[in-house]
Structure formats: C-alpha cells, structure tokens
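Researcher: Good morning. I'm working through a list of sequences from a screen, and I'd like to move beyond sequence-only analysis. For each chain I'm collecting a predicted structure so we can compare shapes side by side. This is the next one on the list. No need for commentary yet; just the structure.
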Amino acid sequence: MTDKKNIDFSECPLLLEGGGMRGIFTAGVLDNFLGKNIIFPYVIGVSAGASNGISYISKQKGRSYFSNVKLPKIRPYVGIKSLLKGRGFFDLDFLFYEYPDKYYPFDWDAYFNSGQRYVMVVSNCITGKAEYVEEYKDGDRLLAACKASCTLPFTNPVSYLDGKPMLDGGVCDAVPIKYLMEQGFEKFVIVLTRPKGYRKKEKKVWLPFFVYSKYPKIREALRGRSARYNQAMDIIDELEAQGKAIVIRPKAPMIVSRSEVDTQKLDALYREGLEYEI
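Model: Good morning. Structure tokens for this chain:
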C-alpha cells in the first residue's frame, strides 16, 4: 500500500477519471478534499471527471452532488426522452448552459482566481488525438470544453470547441497518466471510478460505415480505446506498487452504471467517496 507520507499533495497533480454517473464517487472524494482544505495545484479531468473538477476548482462543496443526485428529480436530464429530443442520452446543453445559471450558480470568480491549473481532456474527431484544454478567462469556452469532454460517443451529438468537432476525452485518453508523466510529474494522486483490478475487454470493435463516417481518425481511436485504457491501468498499478501514486477507487463491487438514475445507489457511492480515509 502506498505510504501517503511520501507524497506531498501540494506538489503533485490530481487525476480524475470519468465514468458517467459513476463519477458521483469522484464528487464525494472532491468534497472530502474541500472539507479538509486539500488543494492540488494541478488538476486534470476527463469526461465526468472534468465536470466534477470545475466545482472543486471553484470550491463549491456539494455542487456536483446536487447535480447528480438532487437535480434529476427536479429536471430529469438522463434517458431516452432526452435522446429522442436530439439532445443525447445526457442532456449536456441543459447541464452546461442552464444548470450553472438557474439551479446552482457556478462561482466564476472563485474558479478564475483559484490559482490552480485545471486541464480538461477532449478527443478531436478530425485528428483522432486527445487535446488538453485550459481556460482561465472565457466562461463560454470553459463550459464548451467541459461539455466536449463529456460528449459520449454514439449517444450524444458531436460537440464543437474552437470550431473543431470533439467527443468525450475518454475516447482518446481516458486516464491521462502518460500525459502527466510527459509533463515531468513523478508522483500522483488518482481518483478512479472502478474497483482495483478492473480491465476492459479487448475485443474487436465493429462500427457501421455511417458512424462518424466523416471522421476516420476518431473511428480508429474508438477501436483502440479499451487497449489504451488497460495500458493506463497497468502503469497506475505499477506506480502505486512503487509508492509513487495514491490511487483512490471504490472498494465495493460496482453497482452504479454509467447512466444510473437510482438516487439511493448514487448517494451511497457518493458517501463512500466523501468518507474515504485520506
């Protein structure tokens, strides 16, 4: 087990995996950090990790819990109805362009004055490569980047950032540990949304010819994402064994799905993160 005394939280990056509604675990961990005034100078988030991360940077404890557990009862935004309306299985337009103003205001000043670096991972449909986006002045661009990072393939329309078509950051770099190592970091704190030992099945991915037909590079990236994910998990396990990473993950077998709407399950997973011994 990693000796936490060997890792100075103030000097290492915090990596936040995605996972749809499983990200409620991450929301609990981040609120745990805020409650203990644990502030990381560098945070990188992917998909749901990116969405939860902006509320951590703005120091709004409880905001991600509200959006994941309380908000769906007030204004459902996950499911077939949203998909049939052309908004995607997750109504991202609502989440990023209505929710921050009407339901739980986002603290723009706190975010932009945090002094922390915050990176959101997106997948460029044209290049089939991950891009790592930071924004500290333009609120509209910040939300567009976060929305792009959360744009699930197949179930949500393509998003656009700086005029470029984008998909969920998890397509090209679901757990950007290699990227952080390339930036020169040697020790890490990593929040995952699957229990230890989880790996994706590496099977041949068949895509109908009409799916992202304009973007052959992203089709290629989609075929290889399971292998990339598993490689990242292998690296993380090795870093953890070497005492170079604190890896925070759910301990119990996962009962929350990517599109979970059962508030009792979501609340329980949030509590696990909130009460995690850090």
